[in-house]
Amino acid sequence: MTSPTSDPVADLTALLGELAGDPGGEPPTAESDGNEPVFRDVEAFVGNYLAHVVERRLASGPTSGMNWCPRWWAHPEAISRLYALWRAWETLRVSDPQTGMSIWWRDHLDPHLAALAAEYGPFSRCGPDKHTDTRPLPVEPAPPEVLAQLPDANGI
Q1: What is the pLDDT of residues 27-68, one digit of tens each?
Q2: What pLDDT score does 1 carry?
Q3: Distance, CA of 134 to CA of 151 (rounded, Å)
Q4: How far apart are CA 108 and CA 110, in angstroms?
Q5: Which of 114, 120, 131, 136 could pair covalently with 71 via S-S, beta carbons 3.0-4.6 A apart?
Q6: How far is it, in rounded angstroms, from Cα 13 to Cα 23?
Q7: Closest-CA residue to 122 (of 105, 107, 135)
Q8: Residue 77: CB partners within 8 Å, gap ≥ 6?
Q9: Whole-prediction pTM value?
């Protein structure tokens, strides 16, 4: 990534250009056919975009802050939420270039990031330098008489 200069606008332009894969410093645009994603997959999105634009103090020891796990990909809920964030970002940048990113931050990133980093969220036992293996929720099979009462009891 770029090193800071005395011009914050130039810094942002260079950062956005790098995030789009253009070391020349041009910000990403949706001027291709509109169907090509900026990021090839969720890993590229998290590592090359999200990790650079989200600014939060991370919890570490007695210091309060956001829970985050460097092995985010080892948490099934995180994979699902981050994948959804990536797809929403790619869709909104094309479908609503005027306000899509604001909508993405407000309606997508903020609630998903809050859930991931919550006191009981998937990253709650992790830290910037620590991963804790996931534990699935305990589940018991539902009795057939309960399932028979549901509208789709005969299958979909």
Answers
A1: 444 444 567 899 999 999 999 999 998 887 777 766 677 888
A2: 47
A3: 33
A4: 6
A5: 131
A6: 10
A7: 135
A8: 116, 121, 122
A9: 0.71
- What's the one-letter identity of residue 137? L
CA gap 17, 27 in Å, rounded: 4
Q: How many residues does the chain have?
A: 156
| Residue 10, amino acid | A
Please measure the distance between the N-terminal and C-terminal CA atoms of the chain and give it in whole angstroms: 49
Mean pLDDT (whole number) for 100-119: 94
Three-state secondary structure of the chain: CCCCCCCHHHHHHHHHHHHCCCCCCCCCCCCCCCCCCCCCCHHHHHHHHHHHHCCCCECECCECCECCCCCHHHCHHHHHHHHHHHHHHHHHHHHCCCCHHHHHHHHHHHHHHHHHHCCCCCCCCCECCECCCCCCCCCCCCCHHHHCCCCCCCCC
Residue 69, Cβ density class (10 Å: 0-12 exposed, 13-18 middle, ≥19 buried)? buried
CB 134 within 8 A of CB 126: no
Q: Check: CB of residue 81 under 8 Å from CB of residue 89.
A: no
